[in-house]
Write a structure and sequence with these properties.
With 446 residues, the chain is an alpha+beta fold. Helices cover 54% and strands 6% of the residues. Helix 10 links the parallel strand 1 and strand 2. The two termini are 56 Å apart.
């Protein structure tokens, strides 16, 4: 064991020294190529050539044996390419927007010249700030450059004994991550039982089939079976109904409910479908830009929403009881590589206060079960009620619930015809036993 630790330390020292030299070389590449992105206009060919060289230099400087990873270096390639594409994509979008604005303005002015007063206004130009986009490219480069400088400065004070022990502990932990150690036959028996539990027909036949031989619903059932294989206390379902047919969605939700009741699990649902949330959840957490902005019971969130983002979500839900147009949420989500200052939803929030653009709101307590992160709940904030579309939707949902509760409690007083009368009213259809049996079979999911 001591020999292994000594060899591990030797490997860590070697990897660290090589990485440090590569980082120093990368700093020279940074200094040489940063001017490519500093001018008033960036050349496309030069930008992509410089990006390729920068990415190669940064990846060479990564110490792959470090347990604590340098996130800025590992994400550098994706971040840099994204920032460059945002800049050049913005140039193209700006050209199209200028053309669109000029065309619509000319059409508007022609109508005015003919003595007509148009009942619309030409939408303002929505242009990408190319200066800011260029700064984003430089900020990606500078962030990694600064990280490399700090790591080079600290390279002489690294305790390799502690790092070696941490590496050995990490390897031992990775080796023990297997939930259960079983034989091949035990694993097969367990797999067949799980396939049967999640409703896969003929599990022994399906056991050796490939994924492309299964329908979407069956694949989702198998994923649930994989999650259940370790007997978890918590089942995390991330968009379990996405890209499934409506009928199959209902079957998957029914399966999760049944598994929840039979195994006494806690289920965490991650979904964008508020209909699923309303039918499945006891407690609801609404998230925006990676942060919980409102949390409470299902009744709290759906019948007493307090955050403007929750209002916007409810306003954008389809409702068969009204012919009103859905209200889309304006704007676009923020770029979390460069998080905005203040409340992340402020730019899209028509109820935003000045403080929303300067400081993130804390969680305000509404009740023992209901909290929301919005400055509108501050005692000194102006009183703002939910929009009319939300209050009307809540009223319709409450009326629908009251109606359903009343119909469930009302006894069935209608007289049922006896069997003879019912048979007399039915048309006589003769079916052979074999054909009838075939028709009774439930079709498999397709």
């Amino acid at each position: 064991m001591l020999d292994f630790i000594a060899l591990a330390k030797e490997g860590l020292v070697y990897s660290h020294n090589v990485s440090t030299e590569k980082k120093k070389a990368a700093l020279e590449v940074f200094e040489r190529l940063k001017p490519v992105f500093s001018g008033s206009e960036i050349d496309r060919h030069d930008a992509y050539a410089a990006a390729k060289e920068l990415i190669s230099a940064v990846e060479a400087g990564i110490d792959r044996l470090e347990i604590v990873k340098d996130n800025s270096a590992y994400t550098f390639a994706t971040s840099l390419r994204s920032a460059i594409e945002q800049y050049f994509g913005g140039i193209e979008r700006n050209k199209k927007e200028e053309t669109r604005y000029a065309r619509q303005t000319a059409a508007y002015e022609r109508k005015v010249a003919r003595g007509k007063q148009p009942d619309y206004k030409v939408a303002d130009k929505k242009l990408v700030d190319l200066g800011e986009a260029a700064e984003d490219i430089l900020s990606v480069i500078v962030r990694v450059e600064e990280d490399f400088r700090r790591q080079i400065d600290r390279s002489g004070s690294v305790n390799f004994d502690e790092r070696t022990v941490a590496m050995v502990d990490w390897l031992k932990q990775k080796a023990s991550d297997v939930a259960y150690k079983v034989t091949h036959n035990m694993a097969k028996t367990r797999a067949l039982k799980l396939l049967e539990e999640v409703g896969i027909p003929e599990p022994r036949k399906r056991y050796r089939q490939y994924p492309f031989e299964f329908s979407g619903g069956m694949r989702q059932r198998i994923v649930i079976a994989i999650a259940l294989s370790a007997n978890p206390d918590i089942l995390i379902c991330d968009e379990p109904t996405t890209a499934l047919d409506v009928t199959i969605q209902a079957q998957i939700l029914e399966l999760i409910n049944r598994v929840n009741q039979e195994r006494q699990l806690s289920v965490i649902f991650i979904t964008h479908d508020l209909g699923v949330v309303a039918n499945m959840a006891d407690r609801v957490a609404v998230m925006y830009a990676g942060k919980i902005v409102e949390i409470g019971t299902a009744d709290d969130v759906f019948y007493s929403p307090a955050h403007p983002y929750t209002w916007a979500l409810l306003s954008s839900m389809p409702d068969l009881d009204t012919k009103e147009k859905l209200e889309a949420i304006p704007g676009t989500p923020p770029n979390m590589i460069y998080p905005p200052k203040g409340d992340a939803f402020a730019e899209r929030n028509k109820y935003a206060l000045k403080i929303d653009f300067e400081e993130q709101p804390p969680m305000f307590r509404i009740s023992d079960t209901h909290y929301a992160a919005t400055w509108l709940l501050h005692p000194n904030a102006p009183k703002i009620d939910p929009p009319k579309s939300v209050t009307e939707r809540i009223a319709r949902m409450k009326a629908r619930m009251t109606q359903e509760a009343g119909s469930a409690e009302k006894p069935d007083t209608a007289e049922k015809p006896d069997a003879a009368e019912a048979d007399a009213d039915q048309p006589k259809v003769r079916k052979s036993g074999k054909k009838a049996a075939k028709r009774k079979q439930q079709p498999e999911e397709r």
